[in-house]
Hints:
The protein is α+β, with helices and mostly antiparallel strands. The chain contains nine helices and four strands; from the N terminus they run βαβαββααααααα.
Amino acid sequence: MLKIYGIHRSRAARNIWLAKELGLPYELIPVVQSYRVANPNAPDAPLHTRSPAFLKVNPNGHIPTVDDDGLILHESLAINLYLARKHGSPLAPANVAEEGQMTMWTLWAATEAEPNALQVLMHTVLNAPANRDPAAAEAATAALQAPFAVLDEALAATGWLVGGRFTVADLNVAEVVRFATPAKALFEAAPRVKSWLAACHARPAYAAVLAATKAET
Ligand SMILES: N[C@@H](CCC(=O)N[C@@H](CS)C(=O)NCC(=O)O)C(=O)O
């Protein structure tokens, strides 16, 4: 069975969402971010991203990692492309052209959007209030205006990124764009992005991930 190392409150949520979309059984092996652990070196510390046992699985010291019958993969977005390609379904590419487009949008998310989207999240919600820098959040928001305009335009034709249907490309990009949701003005300026993200989040598989995230201690 597919093993997913991580917790819902991490990028592992992307893989859990996809597994649920595909109806894939999986085992979630809880590994928390080391910064969430009060005393990471304590003998009774939970498995975390700097635990020697986990570093043997992912020497990068990051979650998620998956173990798919012995195939170890890191990088949340790449894992999703792999799982979609392996298991098929309308979420997967129907041909090599779609595969190219799905890869393009996934790398777009990772390079054009994620660094600034994460800055928005960190400096509005994620960091403790004392560690939030409003100027950093503002600069990241400004830097996201152009990529959001690109995404908005790409959604004009069908409301989805590839093939006129919800695919792994939408899921991967939505998981990155979600980080920027505290910057409401970005979404007001890109109404197609706003309604597309709402449509992605209306999917039952996403609702199940969200419920599990809220239940996670
Ligand atoms: N590019 C990687 C980033 C992984 C990553 O940074 N994960 C965070 C959690 S979302 C993490 O493990 N942080 C804990 C740490 O750095 O110790 C991916 O998408 O999988």
